[in-house]
Amino acid sequence: MKVYIAYPLKEEYLERIKEARNDVEIVENIEEAEVFLGGHISKDDLKKAKNLKWIQSSSAGIDNLLFEELLNSDIIITTASGVHPKPIAEHVFALLLSWTRRINIALRGKFERKWNRDEIKWCEELTGKTMGIIGYGKIGQEIGRIAKSFGMKVIGVKRDINQKDDMVFLPDELFSYKDLHEVLRRSDIIVLVLPLTSETKDLIGEEEFKVMKKDAIFINVGRGKTVKEDALVKALENGQIQCALLDVFYEEPLPEESPLWNLENVIITPHIAGMTPYYDGRLVEIFIHNLKNYPKISRMLNVVDKSLGY
Predict the structure, then answer these.
(1) pLDDT, tens digit, 9 for 90 and up, residues 275-296
(2) Averaged pLDDT for residues 107-123
């Protein structure tokens, strides 16, 4: 089996891949490959890869792969879902606590060498709050697990609420997208962990911000294009919500002229929630599991349903 690896891996990981099956041969040209491991494959590459039968994405999100030629092919696509739950969940709470404990204000004082206690008018607790997690997959479940340890109520939203066999942490309540407004209405903290699909693009807009609580905390660590950014800016400027804690944006890098930079009720991180020193090791574990079971799709992890886009 000829494997083309476009993702940069250390030699030790390459050796483990070669040891996983005795028929694996790592090749340098995509034209020869039956299996591709990487973050992106172009239309031109796909045309060259006449023998390609399986793409193992190095990313959990695959919106950059969903072009027509690939969707209409018989090529198996699997994702790196499972790499990100711990770092992204921890990042959510880093953002959240930075806001509720006013660490963002204290840091400004630190850099100005100023004891700015008088600027910190309030601090908040998470205990007793309700967190609505929109996109209750592996990452959402890890966020929910941690939220419960803070004494919070957890409401999850997922596409198919009857599919629970993949859930390791059940929320207090679980809703489908059709009840999204009900979840937004009830949540003190709203966390988006959505993939980008035709169903989720621009999911959160003006009407959604209107139904949120005036003191709602809005967090997005999924995909920037699931939120209409002009509607978000309007909601923040008009005091429709308390704040936005953002790691992803409609356009990245976030343009210098974006009004989000100047809003006091926004914390921005540059799409780093998924960063972890354990990324490559976890990715290789997923790939090796799938490699050992390929082409038996039923035994492979994270097989993409092309009709759904994830």
Answers:
(1) 999 999 999 999 999 999 999 9
(2) 97
167 compared with 284, residue with greater pLDDT: 284
Catalytic residue (one of 102, 142, 223, 229): 223
Question: Mind listing the pLDDT tens digit for each residue in 228-283?
Answer: 999 999 999 999 999 999 999 999 999 999 999 999 999 999 999 999 999 999 99
Contact 80, 262 (CB under 8 A): no
Catalytic residue among 271, 282, 285, 289: 271
Selected catalytic residue, list 12, 69, 251, 252? 252
Q: How far is CA 25 from the centre of its chain?
A: 32
Residue 223 annotated among the catalytic residues of the structure = yes
The answer to whether residue 252 is catalytic is yes
